[in-house]
Amino acid sequence: MHPAIVSNYPSPETFEEIQFFNGKNYYRGLDWYMNFFPVPKNSTAKFLFEKSATYFDGELVPRRVHALLPKAKLVIIIISPAKRAYSWYQHVRSHGDPTALNHTFYQVLTAGDAQSKALRDLRFRCLSPGMYAHHLDRWLLYFPPQQISVIDGEQVRLDPVTSMTKLQHFLKIRPIFDYSLHLRYDARKGFFCQVVNGDHTKCLGRSKGRHYPTMDSQSAKYLQSFYMTHNIALEKLLKRLGYPIPLWLEEDLSDRPVNNQAVEMPNSL
């Protein structure tokens, strides 16, 4: 929508995302990567962007991004790690993953060393990305805080206009684009969609905004305990960097241990 920002062409191989800086695509080279960013000579775009969900927690990604794009502006959108873990489980189920289809969410979360590698790998992919402070610290080894914007994913969902206005200030884009004229809540879809042709809305595809069954209480309790120390570390890190504390983080920490009370830790990764 924004005339100053152009995204990449979608990749047919990896669910639209390029996924260049992690995995095998990195070895296809820079020319392969840049072919996803064709910019016409008459374009008004000042920013090129791409998003790949697996970048944030990839161990090699920050170093690789910095080597190629040391002045890049990084946008990190975070939601409650418990919700993220459950969403990932449901996501791979929807794509026919046999391990997810044959195991409950709680069975995935509690998989131990004696379980199959496929089950343990799924557990890792559900839980590891939500250790936000650990991964953000890795990015901060290569990029200063001034180049990183941490955005509350719940605010993006409920109030995208405010989120996009803040992002424009972070990117120092002028003039400010008024997203209130271009986004409207679609009650049928359940989230905000782009306004087109004056009074119609164009929403993302059926794979976006799926409604899943409510997470079972046993899994919710497990995740609350598992992520407690990680969420406390995230709160401290965000405060140190001067970033706002997301509302979901305040809610997830509402049952934090009092003083130095020990936290019951489920089996770790």
From TrEMBL:
The keyword DNA repair is assigned to this record: no
Keyword entries, A-Z: Disulfide bond, Glycoprotein, Transferase
GO cellular component: Golgi apparatus
Disulfide bonds: C193-C203
SUPFAM superfamilies, per database record: P-loop containing nucleoside triphosphate hydrolases
Positions contributing to 3'-phosphoadenylyl sulfate binding: S87, K208, G209, R210, H211, Y212
Gene3D superfamilies: P-loop containing nucleotide triphosphate hydrolases (3.40.50.300)
Molecular function via GO: deacetylase activity; heparan sulfate N-sulfotransferase activity
Residue span(s) of domain Sulfotransferase: 11-228
One Pfam family per UniProt: Sulfotransfer_1
Name the UniProt record assigns to this protein: Bifunctional heparan sulfate N-deacetylase/N-sulfotransferase
Native source species: Daphnia magna
Classification lineage: Eukaryota, Metazoa, Ecdysozoa, Arthropoda, Crustacea
